[in-house]
Amino acid sequence: MVEIVLEKLFKVLQDARVKVTESGYIPGQAFPTEQAQLDALANVLENTALFGDILLRLPGITHEVYRKSKEWELLARWSVSFCNETKVYDDTDSKLLLLMAQELRLVPRDPNYINPYRKKAKKEQKNKENSEQESISKKSKKKKEKKKRGPRLSHAEL
Prior knowledge:
Layout: H1 2-23, H2 35-57, H3 59-66, H4 70-86, H5 91-103, H6 119-147
């Protein structure tokens, strides 16, 4: 299913790219007034965001399908940079583009970058949480052991 969606998505994206570049639209300019140019621009913006959602939520299968085509890699690189330059997206969508670019390694990954939908990331996160819980429980056990004191005899009772 992902393969079929990506094939259609990149076909629409490729057609839209051709129309946008033929129209001479430069990102950041006022929107074109002609309906065909507006549709092409909307297709680029919408399909890039859709690809980002699919990529971030289904990273394993998406990477597997995506790597098969060098054209898709070039098109994704172009569309991400184009969308960033348009300044159309709000903060949330801009963050999605940044995460998408990091997932595709179009930009260097942030040291704290983790895709929570990646199986490997989930395992690492669980291991990290388990080790934190173990260290917390060890600390609390040590504290509890130190606090355990029974009744004491005074010197007079000895």
